[in-house]
Amino acid sequence: MTYTSTDPRRQICAALDQTQRQVDAVHPSQLALPTPCAEFDLKMLLAHLVAVLRKLTLVGDGRDMTLVTDPANDVVEECADVFRSARSEFDQVWAADGKLGEDFALVWGTMTRNELLDAYTHEFTVHAWDLAQVTGRRVELDPVLAHAALD
Predict the structure, then answer these.
(1) Residue 23 domain-assigned?
(2) CA angle 47–114–1, rounded 5-degree value
(3) Residue 20: which H helix or E strand, with range?
(4) Which residue range or ranges hold the Mycothiol-dependent maleylpyruvate isomerase metal-binding domain (predicted)?
(5) Tell me: the pLDDT tens digits for 83-131?
(6) Is residue 58 part of a domain?
(7) What gap in Å lies between CA 85 and CA 105, rounded to an integer?
């Protein structure tokens, strides 16, 4: 994919890259650990992230995101592989430049592609930090993404 500086896919891909690095560092023995998200242990947070990727893939493909179970029920010890597979499907659907002119109807309203991808860029940025906190990894978030998420 080739992105312009205003293309929201550039930012969400950067957020997904840093999230993937955190997911890759998860050891199966850590899956029951609590997270900064009170409703999720680590396994459930990972399952939520996989579900969000799948929802975005469906939306990008013009389908209903409510068809996705959230949190996903197929996240097991090989969580990095499941995340990577969901990411690959997301990348394939969102690679088409035609997606950039569309508005997307969601359960709670209509969003432009910039609003949609921007919101989820922030979600993945924050959850990358959450993952680092749980696993004890020193994390250096992309400062542009981190500042935007804090705003």
Answers:
(1) yes
(2) 75
(3) helix 8-24
(4) 14-132
(5) 999 999 999 999 877 666 677 777 778 888 788 888 899 999 999 989 9
(6) yes
(7) 25
